[in-house]
């Protein structure tokens, strides 16, 4: 509701229908053409804007290159792709080189906010390396305009009421306005904090997604996937026709659902890749593997959790700037890198910064939109031609004869 | 208390002091010489006793070999080793070949019960392959005489009140009677159900230890490791000298503790090995690796959990009858196989059935027992010489100048 009011007050009578249609009361929904497009921005490493030099660009580019090139690339993606959501997968700022962390955060996310595009973020391992803690950085992100980020769920396990990390939350994308699914999620986005560094002295390098985060995610996913009958609602307006078909109901979450034969699709986003992201067979990969993975040296079982959940079609990470491939793991479930986006992040001179685009399409047509039919992805290179590469399908669920 | 009464009533005036000293009120404790010895029995595959033939023994042994050889081997281990506890690590019975599962269970555990030795068990993947479910098998085991097994903890997470599997429990081994630690655990045994078969169609083979079991175990371990001050107790009998030293208190759990500088040691037992059991470097192994591992095809993060817990020195599994090595994994933490014990289980003719012995020793002396100083292990082969092999140290924490 806060976001809704903010949307009205900021835009007033000049209200941009395209955004507020998507974001009423903080909601996201598929557009009227049955599509939902996400742009992934990995590893901006934003610091002090014009004062922050680039890393690993060509010698002739160095003199004029700064964080502003990262800003320009974000604008370029927005104008070219018109995303419904931008997901920043961590290392959004490089706080070690930032003279003012909140200023860096404001500058880093300025384009999506100015463009009034809903956005979400998870933390990387560099976001907190300064005066602001991980909790403070995420609390700030949660409050920024058009941010869909949330801190953590109130999740009761044992005698604790929350889970590890900051910024573990779920974004639901509902059906197109006016459709039978306008109050039901058709695509769930699982945002997970993969931590920063190992806290165990004898285990080196990077952190991992903890068991308690995984239990929460499994339970949240299971809740989303099974039929739910809010009794108060049913009392107000009995819908016996839904009860009769309860065996076929999946992902019932709203007030005006139609029985579905499949649960909603889901995608996961986190910063540090899991070990299997790197060991995934190359044969099924589309993209490049140019560096050893910075995945944790321990396997905390997150792939097993994603597969067990059953609704996740792909997980998207950052962290390794020179890896940008998508490969199929067990499940089948795609594990995808995006490749580095930011100019103050390490990279490879002559190998353009890049961004991943992910689009989900619905079965059916304007008369009757149904569940997700397929999910596609490709990348854009920040080169002269704004080259589109590596288009591939991550999931198919075509219904040949929609009702 | 139930076990205490049972102990009295069964044994009456002939009460075997050696057992009831260890097991008063269902408690286990280090003996007066500061030692606690565990015999591990892996994969008995017990069925119908004399009517059940052996697998993979020498041709000349086949005619007279049956489940009774497994029984005889169990008696031989008891008489040779005088264990304080026998741990059965699953596939205790092979229910598929059993005409009466409860009879198989009674026969399988008969020696330890008759010898009045406390014992514990976890389930394997073959225990339930008949009329009795996993839950029923474990419920039966829990109620058997001298069994230390428990079903599951009441563990609240989300809106559920228990965890996956049957037979997830902790056995505490307290200090020697009359010592300062007679009411405090010095060695915790974590018993975990590793399930049976993958429940996900596209994931083949064996099951894995779930995230919710791991969250429970981490929390239980953390509770055991931090100081606890039962307020009711403190009100009855204030002990300000303990409060003053609270920064040094570890693993405070009883009514008469002494401040310790280290948490209790811990060992884990489960049936199906984790993937790292097999990928552990051979260089540090002592024992044989004669078959590919039947570990799950997915990694559910259990090693990460064990390492995170910080108190676990080794994990002991069965399942792969022809592997009997102990190898060091990250942590450092030893992952140990036992090798097959049962004659109706597959094996290798001429390669004797075997059993692992694990002994924990305390620092200090009879005047002042302290925490665990070291943990040793070796195996016994069921051959003519009852050969003892592969003795090795799994953990050292020697205090050179005990108080």
From TrEMBL, chains A, B:
One of its GO terms (cellular component) is cytoplasm. This is Calcineurin-like phosphoesterase domain-containing protein. It comes from the Eukaryota. GO terms for molecular function: hydrolase activity, acting on ester bonds. Keywords: Signal. Coiled coil: none annotated. InterPro entries: Calcineurin-like_PHP (IPR004843), Metallo-depent_PP-like (IPR029052), PAP14/16/28/29 (IPR011230).
